[in-house]
Amino acid sequence: MAQNQRMSVQVQDGKLRADPSFLGKIIGSVAYGDAVTVVRQQDPWFFVSTRAGQLTGWIHSSALTEKEIVLRAGDANVQKTASQREIALAGKGFNPEVEKEYKKRNPNLDFEEIDRMERIVVSDEEIRQFMKDGKLSPEGGKP
């Protein structure tokens, strides 16, 4: 990836972080279709700058694309954004249709506990505090 390369945000809500880690403090966000400029790279993270340098931070490479995304009212690509939940489910091979079909084929299974777990939300601050209390680090437990 070349420095100063322009890229587009391909997720609904891209988080810019202070450090190249999913546990890094969120310092801002970019939206689907926003243009960013890559300042430097630390695989698989990019340190980016938004237009006019208003905001800078680290973002995971999976949130970006080299394709230019142009948004205009009525464009088909406006309606093709995926939520973070949909992306996570797709990564596991699930989407709402697959889940519905699975439930249909397995009517005696109780999904109540799974649905309850899916509603649990853990904030970034709670994760950081957990790691601090447990003396953990994103680099695999190195002190």
Biggest sheet descriptor: 5 strands, antiparallel
- Reading the helices and strands in chain order gives EEEEEEEHHHH
CATH C-level name of the largest domain: Mainly Beta
What's the architecture of the largest domain in CATH terms?
Roll
- Give the low-confidence spans: none
Residue-averaged pLDDT, rounded?
A: 80
In what order do the strands lie side by side in the largest sheet? 6-5-4-1-7
> What's the name of the CATH homologous superfamily of the largest domain?
SH3 Domains
Whole-Å distance between the termini?
31 Å
Total number of distinct structural domains: 2
- Structure class: alpha+beta
CATH fold descriptor of the largest domain:
SH3 type barrels
Shape designation = flat
